[in-house]
Amino acid sequence: MFKFFLLPLILSILWFGFLQYNNWTIQQGKKGFIYIICGTSVTIAFLSLMMYLTS
Q: pTM of the entire structure?
């Protein structure tokens, strides 16, 4: 279960690396961080629900 919460952290680090590689600021990539947080939150909620329903 704890591994689910590493997903947004890893994706955010990768996104930050992408921004640094292309010489973009965090302000320019803010929307990407929002998409990462929202998308992974929905994924974590769905997987948690499936684990609860199938256990």
A: 0.82
Q: How far apart are CA 18 and CA 39, in angstroms?
A: 18
What is the pLDDT tens value at each position of the chain, 55 positions in all? 667 778 899 999 999 999 999 999 999 999 999 999 999 999 999 988 999 999 8
Contacts 24+ apart (CB under 8 A), 6-13: 7/40, 7/43, 7/44, 8/36, 8/37, 8/40, 8/41, 11/36, 11/40, 12/36, 12/37
Contact 43, 3 (CB under 8 A): no
